[in-house]
UniProtKB/TrEMBL annotation:
<dbReference type="Pfam" id="PF13545">
    <property type="entry name" value="HTH_Crp_2"/>
</dbReference>
<dbReference type="InterPro" id="IPR018490">
    <property type="entry name" value="cNMP-bd_dom_sf"/>
</dbReference>
<keyword id="KW-0238">DNA-binding</keyword>
<dbReference type="InterPro" id="IPR036390">
    <property type="entry name" value="WH_DNA-bd_sf"/>
</dbReference>
<keyword id="KW-0805">Transcription regulation</keyword>
<dbReference type="InterPro" id="IPR036388">
    <property type="entry name" value="WH-like_DNA-bd_sf"/>
</dbReference>
<dbReference type="InterPro" id="IPR012318">
    <property type="entry name" value="HTH_CRP"/>
</dbReference>
<dbReference type="Pfam" id="PF00027">
    <property type="entry name" value="cNMP_binding"/>
</dbReference>
<keyword id="KW-0804">Transcription</keyword>
<dbReference type="InterPro" id="IPR000595">
    <property type="entry name" value="cNMP-bd_dom"/>
</dbReference>
<feature type="domain" description="HTH crp-type">
    <location>
        <begin position="148"/>
        <end position="222"/>
    </location>
</feature>
<protein>
    <submittedName>
        <fullName>Crp/Fnr family transcriptional regulator</fullName>
    </submittedName>
</protein>
<dbReference type="InterPro" id="IPR014710">
    <property type="entry name" value="RmlC-like_jellyroll"/>
</dbReference>
Length: 239
């Protein structure tokens, strides 16, 4: 929709009070974009990072490939997400970043990132907030994989995605587009695709979620939150 703020602006507005000038600067860095097909690497493990990748459309991920060829997804990157703000400091990548769906991305050079943080203290604060939230999400995922039963782990992920997509105006009060496959979910949760299928069928049978035409609907959001023991504090979305 014409005039709608970019996902980057919508997300960072949760981390700091952005002025009109701040918003204009952030819109500027996301103006030049590239369309990348699904299942493509934005950068491979071992490569030297020259840019910070910004996801504007679609779902991407950070992932590791294990010696047996298995993939572990360690972060989902949604519209508005920056793929490691300070990654250009590193000599080489210790993980890969790839698309899960068709994605539109912008590439921010070291100079562009340096300019953003030097010009506006509000943007600097918002970017630090985004980095801290990324770390908090990773901690929550680790806790979930270690301690939550599989059905609650899956339900927790659905609750998290609802809030993260609402933050960039890509979800309604109770539903959002859900393009991930059961293999993707297995690689996020550390489960087998067969186990994921069972857990998904269980959540459906309990009336906790519905999935139709790649659209996930949560009929009763408080009920799903209660089932998942979901506490959104780690997303730090409060003003």
């Amino acid at each position: 929709m014409e005039g709608k703020p970019s996902p980057l602006v919508l997300k960072l507005a949760h981390g700091a009070a952005l002025t009109p000038e701040d918003r204009a600067l952030l819109e500027g860095v996301s103006r030049e974009t590239h369309l990348i097909g699904p299942r493509q690497d934005l950068i491979r493990e071992g490569a030297r990072p020259e840019y910070v990748q910004l996801v504007l459309e679609g779902f991407a991920c950070r992932y590791k490939v294990l010696p047996d060829g298995g993939r572990q997804i360690v972060a989902l990157l949604l519209p508005g997400d920056l793929c490691d703000l300070h990654v250009t400091i590193l000599g080489e990548m210790d993980h890969a970043i790839g698309t899960l769906t068709l994605c539109r991305v912008a590439r921010l050079s070291r100079g562009m990132v340096a300019d953003l943080v030097s010009v506006s203290p509000n943007i600097t604060r918002a970017l630090w907030w985004a980095t801290l939230v990324d770390e908090a999400v990773l901690r929550e995922w680790l806790a979930g994989m270690g301690r939550r039963p599989a059905d609650r782990q899956l339900a927790h992920l659905f609750c998290e995605l609802l809030l993260r997509l609402q933050a960039v105006e890509l979800a309604s009060a109770d539903s959002y587009d859900f393009p991930l496959s059961q293999i993707d979910l297995a690689d996020i949760l550390g489960l087998t695709p067969v186990h994921v299928n069972r857990m998904l069928q269980h959540l459906r049978a309990e009336g906790l979620v519905t999935l139709h035409n790649k659209r996930l609907t949560i009929p009763d959001v408080p009920r799903l939150r209660s089932f998942a023991e979901f506490d959104p504090t780690y997303l730090h979305m409060r003003p």
